[in-house]
TrEMBL record:
Principal place of residence: cytoplasm
Pathway the protein acts in: Cofactor biosynthesis; biotin biosynthesis; biotin from 7,8-diaminononanoate: step 1/2
Cofactor: Mg(2+)
NCBIfam families: bioD
Lineage: Bacteria, Pseudomonadati, Bacteroidota, Flavobacteriia, Flavobacteriales
Enzyme class (EC, first level): ligase
Keywords: ATP-binding, Biotin biosynthesis, Cytoplasm, Ligase, Magnesium, Metal-binding, Nucleotide-binding
Annotated organism of origin: Fluviicola taffensis (strain DSM 16823 / NCIMB 13979 / RW262)
Location of the active site: 32
Protein function: Catalyzes a mechanistically unusual reaction, the ATP-dependent insertion of CO2 between the N7 and N8 nitrogen atoms of 7,8-diaminopelargonic acid (DAPA, also called 7,8-diammoniononanoate) to form a ureido ring.
Residues noted as binding ATP in the record, renumbered to the chain: 12-17, 43, 97-100, 182-184
Stored Pfam families: AAA_26
Name assigned to this protein: ATP-dependent dethiobiotin synthetase BioD
Family recorded in the similarity comment: Belongs to the dethiobiotin synthetase family.
Keyword Lyase: no
Length: 204
């Protein structure tokens, strides 16, 4: 039973949408250890709404401020440590969504998401999106994971592929598995299911 982590090259690249698509494609459960911001519209609610069989595993930490977890936790008078992020006993395959990128801090002592990924020893899917600067952000993320000997499950492009960018990725990571999920303008169970089908077809 293989679990996967989903991280992004930064904010607003579509990690939650990709997580929903992977949950649908793999018939997996979903866990987001930390959710910060509007607690009435959680990322887990999005995944629950647009997938058919996904069980939502409750987050370990809910923070009230839409900002970096280390500062949101400070404002909520919570101190986060590695002990807060032990992997639950998953009953089936699970997609674990991070927040922001790999170096997003969880406390003022230097704990970042990449430390959790290394602790969990799970393969990581990196979500990217093509924009000016995305090559730099993508390579920095992939190299950060590589430096910690964290397995890279693949690079998932949210939106249209860009051959010029992908040539650079392959020049650094010749064995990198690159797949695409179409950028969705409207969300429904049907659109997530179709994106999941297209993603599975790319693995054949």
């Amino acid at each position: 039973m293989q679990h996967f982590v989903v991280t992004g090259i930064g904010t607003e690249v579509g990690k939650t949408v990709v997580s929903a698509v992977l949950c649908e494609a793999l018939k997996a459960n979903y866990w987001k250890p930390v959710q910060a911001g509007d607690l009435h519209t959680l990322d887990s609610d999005f995944v629950r709404s647009f997938t058919s069989e996904t069980e939502i595993i409750p987050s370990n930490v809910l923070l009230n401020y839409a900002m970096s977890p280390h500062e949101a936790a400070r404002l909520d008078e919570i101190e986060l440590t590695e002990d807060d992020f032990d992997l639950p006993r998953f009953s089936k395959q699970t997609i674990i969504e991070g927040a922001g990128g790999v170096m997003v801090p969880l406390n003022d002592e230097g704990l970042c998401y990449i430390d959790l990924f290394q602790l969990w020893e799970l393969p990581v899917y990196v979500v990217t999106k093509h924009y000016l600067g995305s090559i730099n952000h993508t390579l920095l993320t992939l190299n950060a994971l590589l430096s910690r000997e964290i397995e890279i499950a693949g690079l998932i492009v949210n939106g249209e592929r860009n051959e010029a960018s992908e040539r650079i990725y392959y020049s650094h990571f010749p064995d990198l598995a690159i797949t695409t999920i179409p950028e969705l303008n409207e969300f429904s169970k049907e659109s997530i299911q179709q994106a999941a089908k297209l993603w599975i077809e790319q693995l054949a």
